[in-house]
Amino acid sequence: MEGRNMKASEAMRLGAMLSGQAFGLLEASDGRTCAMGALRKAVGLPVRGMSKLERWSTQARLKRQFPILAMTPEAFCPGCRLQVFEGVVLVDLIVHLNNDDRWSRERIADLVQKYEERAAAVSRPTESDNCPSTEELVAAL
Predict the structure, then answer these.
(1) How many other C-beta atoms are found inside a 10 Å radius of the C-beta of residue 36?
(2) How many CA atoms lie within 13 A of 136 on its CB side?
(3) Cα distance between residue 72 and residue 52, in whole Å
(4) CB of 26 closer than 8 Å to CB of 95
(5) Which of 102, 113, 107, 98 has its CA nearest to residue 34?
(6) For the ranges 14-23, 41-50, 55-64, 117-126, which has the lowest average pLDDT?
(7) Which residues contact 37 (CB under 8 A, 6 or more apart)?
(8) What DSSP state is assigned to residue 69?
(9) This prediction's pTM
(10) How many Å apart are CA 14 and CA 43, to the nearest integer?
(11) pLDDT tier at 134 (50, 70, 90 boundaries)?
(12) Can you tell me whether residue 29 is helix, strand or coil?
C-alpha cells in the first residue's frame, strides 16, 4: 500500500488478522476485537482503557482519517433489513452489523469497500465533466 493512504476496509481486514472477533466491546480481555476495534488496532489507536471522552475523540479522529465512516448508509441494514434512521452514519451500521447481526469483520470490510468504491466513482471526474487538462490550464495563464 505504498504511495497511498490505507482505506478503512483495508485497515479493518488487517486488524481482523490480529485476533478473533469480539461482540459488544472494542476489545475483549483476551485481545479479540470487534470490527471497529480491528480498524483502530490496525491504525495504532487505543482500543482499551479509555475514558468516554477519549473514545469520542478517537472516533472523531477515525472519521477524519476515514471520511467514509461518516457517510450516510442505505435506507435498510443489509443484514436484518432494519430501517436506518436519520443521523445514522456508516460507523453506526458497522457496530450494528458486528454486535447485533454478528457479521464477520471481513464481511463488514467487504461492505465498507463497496461504499468506498461508490464514493470514489462519484468523486472521479469523467470526460463528460468537461474539466480542462493541466496543459489547457497552463496555456490559459
Answers:
(1) 26
(2) 4
(3) 24
(4) no
(5) 98
(6) 117-126
(7) 15, 22, 25, 26, 27, 47
(8) G
(9) 0.82
(10) 9
(11) low
(12) coil
Instruction: Give the three cell numbers for residue 102.
Output: 454478528
Give the pLDDT confidence score for residue 84 in this predicted structure.
87
Residues 12-32 as b/e (b if ≥16 CB within 10 A, e otherwise) read bbbbbeebebbeeebbbeeeb
Which three cell numbers, joined as nine digits, stand for 96? Answer: 450494528
CA neighbor of 92 nearest in space, from 114, 63, 121: 63
* Non-local CB neighbours of 58 within 8 Å, separated by 6+ positions: 40, 45, 46, 50
Largest CA distance in the chain: 62
User: In DSSP terms, which residues pair with 83 in a beta bridge?
Assistant: 76
Q: Which helix (H) or strand (E) holds 111?
A: helix 105-123
Interatomic CA distance for residues 14 and 8, integer angstroms: 10
Q: State the Cα–Cα distance between residues 36 and 108, nearest whole angstrom.
A: 10
**Mean per-residue pLDDT of the chain:** 88
The DSSP call for residue 128 is G
What letter represents residue 17's amino acid?
M
Tell which residue, 7, 16, 5, 20, has the closest CA to residue 107: 16
